[in-house]
Structures are given as structure tokens and as C-alpha cells.
Amino acid sequence: MAYPIVKYRLRADGRQPEYLAGISTGFSGECSVNTNVAGKIPKWLSPQENVMLGLAVGPADPAGLPSGCEGTIDSKSDLTTYITSISGDWKNLNKVVVGVSSYKEVGLTTCFDTSENPSAAGITTTVIGTTTTSAGAGTTVGVNTFTSYSESVTITDGVSTTTRTHTTTTENEMETPYDPAAKATELWDIYEAVNGL
Fold first, then answer.
1. Concatenated DSSP letters of 22-91
2. To 10 degrees, what angle do helices 76-86 and 180-195 make?
């Protein structure tokens, strides 16, 4: 069974067309691009305005392609050319952890009741450490910081002690240029593997 690469649109009801392979080792919905012309009456209404890449089942019928199928791509060179032609302004957006810091609080469990002990008296704080790493190549377009904690309670001779570990993670959103050749290689490798080439 052949699994060609096709350019396709969703059905009018928003579902995937039946001619897609739908196999876990394949792909669909890749490199989606809106084909309507900005500022003009749209030729394609939602959800059919985007053309995507996927693997179909069986070779193309010489008599023609089914509705919504915009053609096949038969070589890695053609795939690279196509992806390059649609991705001129695309960017990759990656999230990179650039810092993690943590500290530990230990005290009697009753000391952690903020309504009864607002000053946190009796709680010992110990800095565990901080690590930082480079975000790598690209442009920082956002920074997010998240704080979480985990807690454990031990009871010895009827005395309850709480240990609370706080962790703060800083994450940079990095924008890098899109690499159409790398994407074409990724998809072509999948195509060859599925087709046993």
C-alpha cells in the first residue's frame, strides 16, 4: 500500500478527509497555511481556508483527485520547495527553562497556620540552591515565572513537623527562524519509513 504526501483541506464539516492514512506512524495537519488572499472576499470559508500536508492512502487516481485534495508531492526537493514557498514569515517559538531556585521551610506543623502564626515564627528557612542556564540562540519574546511547592509531614512522638519545599522556575519564550529544509527532511523521513523506502 502506498502512502503519498498530499496537500489537502478539511471537509466542510471540519473533519479530516477519508483519504488520509490516519496511521500513528504517519502525519497530518502539518505546515498549515491560509490560502485566502488578505483584503479580498475569501474563496474558502472556515474550516476549509487552510491547506495542510498529510499522508494519504493509495496512489493518486489518474482521473483526478478527490474534493479538497490540492495535489501530491512526489520528491523531497518538491517538498522543500513547497514548504519554503509558504513559510517566509514563520518563526519557531520554544520555551526554555533558564533558571530554577528552591528553598526549604521546616517547622512544627502548627507554625504553618498563617492565621494563627502570621509572622511565621518557628519556621526555619534554608536555601537549597539556584541554577541558571543560557536560553540559547534566538530572540527572547517573553518570560514566565512559576512558583510551586511540595509538602511533607512527619510525626514523631506525637509531634507533627512540616517540611515545605518551594521551587521557582523561570522560562524564556525564544523565537528562532523557521527552517523549511529541516521540516521537509523530517516529513520526508516519515514518508520513507511508512512506505518502507
1. --TTS--SEEEEE-SPTTS--SS-TTSSEEEEEEBSSPPPTT-PPTTEEEEE-SHHHHHHHHHHH-TT-E
2. 140
Q: How much is the pLDDT for 86? A: 96
Contacts of the segment 144-153: beta carbons below 8 A, 24+ positions apart: 144/95, 144/170, 144/171, 144/173, 145/169, 145/170, 145/171, 146/171, 153/109
Distance (Å, rounded) from C-alpha 87 to C-alpha 180? Answer: 7
Contact 66, 103 (CB under 8 A): no
Residue 165 half-sphere exposure toward CB, CA atoms < 13 A: 9
* DSSP 8-state symbol, 99: E
Query: How confident is residue 1, by pLDDT bands cut at 50, 70 and 90?
Result: low
pTM of the complete model: 0.70
pLDDT, mean over the chain: 94
pLDDT tens digits for range 106-161? 999 999 999 989 998 999 999 999 999 888 889 999 999 999 999 999 999 999 99
Matching residue, cell 514569515: 89
CA nearest to 163, candidates 171, 155, 154:
154
